[in-house]
Amino acid sequence: MNKLKKDGAGGKHSWGKPGIELKYLHNLSEGEEENKDPIFDEKSQEQYIQNLLDRPEYFKFLDYNNELKEFKNPFINESRLLEALKHYREIAEFSFNSNNPKLLFKGFKKSIASVHSIIIKRAIQVALEKGETFQIILMEYLYNAYILSLISKEAIRRGIDYILSSLGDLLIDTPNCIEPILFIIRELILQKLLPSDYSIRIPDSLITLPQTKSLFNELVSPNSIDIEKRKEIKVKLALMSGDMIATNNIDDAIELFSKNDMKPFRSTMIRKLIETSYDRNNSEKEICSLILVRLKHEAQFDIYSYSYAFDDLLEVY
After folding, report:
1. DSSP assignment of 17-75, as one string?
2. Are 126 and 174 in contact (CB under 8 A)?
3. How far apart are CA 117 and CA 11, in angstroms?
4. When comparing pLDDT for 74 and 178, which is higher?
5. Does 254 have pLDDT greater than 80?
6. End-to-end CA distance of the chain
7. Are residues 175 and 60 in the same domain?
8. Which of 42-51, 67-76, 98-107, 124-133 has the lowest mean pLDDT?
9. Predicted TM-score of the model (pTM)
10. Taking the CB of the first residue and of the last residue of the chain, which one, N or C, has fewer CB atoms within 10 A?
11. Domain end residue (candidates: 160, 193, 217)
12. 23 CB contacts (<8 Å, ≥6 apart)?
């Protein structure tokens, strides 16, 4: 345990200067200050953020050969990951508070591509907590970061996916976050940072709420499939996946996905096939793999459909 030094402060039987307990509580190094300290000032906070950005272990997990040898997957080091998530939030929060996107952009530059979506998720969480003004600032930051080639559309899409998958926790911390989330999605679609059919990935439970129905309707085109139809299609695809594996025939799928309004459901088809194969024997698993390859070539399933499907599966399992 760290022992507080007298430091020449206080009278008899008192130890340490005011605020020194924060250093020991958070294990801060000399010169670092806790940003909630009442005597904290912006310049010292900016220096603290700059110091974080100069520590590659928070942004380049996969570049550390020693960690790779020890953990195989360095993200298994949970304490390091939790520490990094805390710092991503601090960087986003300071960028918003100081209206200075450069520090957030530096975070994107410093990190490997697979970390971008996690930083984006943390930035969105901060914006949801801080209110509409910061949500608008967030849109501007993400758009400029994309224009500057600091992040990809795929990273933005994954960041939103992570937000949607963690709605349960978000609702505890930010009970009124649902409408702002739909607002952010709408703005990202309008800025062409999200695909126009992204609304298909919004959970049915979210868009059936009375307060979000009208906002959801702004996200979809006039020809989009309504909520009840969406549910029917998902059931149909689950049944079709079993038939496809049993017969090794994809003719019905080719015909179905030739329709424009079915294209957003390609990732759902892929996911249903993989989920159906889980409890099948090895030969049927192999048939499933071949069907996935054939869908790409014969039904024009694009690479993003596979990316979306596997992201969803990894989130669930």
Report:
1. -TTHHHHHHTTPPTT---TT-TT--HHHHHHHHHHHHT-GGGT-GGG-HHHHHHHSSGG
2. no
3. 51
4. 178
5. yes
6. 39
7. yes
8. 67-76
9. 0.65
10. N
11. 217
12. 32, 34
Rounded to 10°, the helix 282-298/266-277 angle is 170
The whole-angstrom separation of Cα 312 and Cα 13 is 58
Q: Which phi and psi angles does 166 have, rounded to 5°? A: -110, 25
- Tell me if 97 is assigned to some domain: yes
**Same-domain pairing of 101 and 209:** yes
Assess whether 195 and 47 both reside in one domain: yes
For 66-115, how does the pLDDT look when each residue is reduced to its tens digit (9 = 90+)?
Answer: 433 443 444 445 566 677 778 888 888 888 888 888 888 988 888 877 78
Q: How many domains does the chain have?
A: 2
Residue 92 lies in a domain: yes
Rounded Cα distance between 253 and 107, Å, is 43
- The Cα–Cα gap between 61 and 223 comes to 44
How high is the pLDDT of residue 142? 93
Spatial distance between the Cα atoms of 161 and 155, rounded to a whole number of angstroms: 10
CA 295 to chain centre: 28
Which residue, among 249, 242, 153, 234, has the nearest Cα to 193 in the 3D structure? 153
207 with 88, same domain: the answer is yes
> Please, are residues 100 and 141 in contact by the beta-carbon 8 Å criterion?
no
- Asked whether residue 202 falls in the same domain as residue 278, the answer is no
The domain of 175 spans 41-217
Q: What is the DSSP string of 178-232?
A: HHHHHHHHHHHHHTTSS-TTGGGGS-HHHHTSHHHHHHHHTTS-TTSPPHHHHHH
